[in-house]
Amino acid sequence: MDLFDRAGVKFPKKAQSLTTALILIWIALFLLDVAVRRIALDTAAIARRVKSWLPGKRAVLVAGGTLDKLRRRRDQLREQLRSRPKDAFASRRFEAGEDAKASELPKAKTAEQPAPEKPEPKAPAKRTPARTEAEQTHLQQLLKARRKAKDHLRGPQDSLGKDDRTPPTGDS
Predict the structure, then answer these.
(1) How far apart are CA 156 and CA 18, in angstroms?
(2) For residues 65 and 71, is the Cβ–Cβ distance under 8 A?
(3) What is the spatial distance between Cα 2 and Cα 11, in angstroms, rounded to a whole number?
(4) How many Å is the Cα radius of gyration of the chain?
(5) Which end of the chain is more exposed for a tag (fewer CB within 10 A), N or C?
(6) Looking at the domain assignment, is residue 2 inside a domain?
């Protein structure tokens, strides 16, 4: 008998591939990993919430003495405001007495002052580029080198006093 003989052995076949299930498991694990790394969980709050769902003793919220003191003080202030006479409110209009004179009241100084004169806009000054000595000498050196190169290219007969700006002619 040969132990490694595969004759007559049937391999199991499945109609659905395993890749779909593995991809779904991978996506769930990936999202769980991201959630664990990015979201800070308050374990104490979770434990309290779970305890509140479980049957047994339920935590009863007791209002502290501070809240009771605030409520009593609010009621006292409401009662004080209700007990005041209606003419004691500050929303009443001020009325001057009969002995007050209009000439004694201060006048607004802004109404008496003339409007300030607007300065005339000045024409903007023409700007000329200010060149430093180093730039001027550098530019002068470049122009001098350019003239020298032109003279060298033209030859000795063209550089005897003719203007550099005129093109050379074939007559001379």
Answers:
(1) 94
(2) no
(3) 19
(4) 51
(5) N
(6) no
